[in-house]
Write a structure and sequence with these properties.
mainly alpha, Arc Repressor Mutant, subunit A, Tetracycline Repressor, domain 2, transcription cis-regulatory region binding, DNA-binding transcription factor activity, HTH_TetR, Tet_transcr_reg_TetR-rel_C_sf
Amino acid sequence: MARKTKEDAQKTRDQILDAAEHVFYRNGFTITTMAEIAEAAQLSRGAVYGHYKGKQEVATAMAERVIQAASPFQQQPALSALLNLKEYCLQEIRSYIEPSSIQRVLFFLYTGIDDSPELLHLRFTWEKKRIAQIDSLLRQAIAQKELSAEVDFDLISLYCQSIIEGVFSIIYFGSLSEAQRWQRAEQLCEYGLQRLSMPLSRP
């Protein structure tokens, strides 16, 4: 019986967090109410409060669950480090655009959290994982002599982050058709990363 109760409680929490993804994605943090989350979850407000003290706790649990479950980037052994970096950039861009739990949570963390410290911390956690993955692939590219050991490492790491953010903006906010968008995204990432092998001009 105790096992069944624990499983039921987890099922209810998942039901609440699944509903919260959509409500927070649609409304942002400030105007969302626990009543709206309960309605979307098809539960009573009492049932929601039985698991979470308020919407801050719901939002934090929702974001933590999705970020922890996000699949890590899987390198392709047949590809060079820079080609794997291109694939990583595309994977990251897709995570912000294609409808999914991670897309809804990231959209919320970047546009709808109103500087909540707990939620900002989760956004920074995501960004640290992104920077760590970029830096790992750049170090591999240097070890494989795709990039010079003399490169300004911090600068090229920031540059790779700017490729992700820039291509995302073009694909998400631009007027490209569905048929064009991912072809253009791949071309832009590839073109942008080619710049890493070119010497940096001096002022």
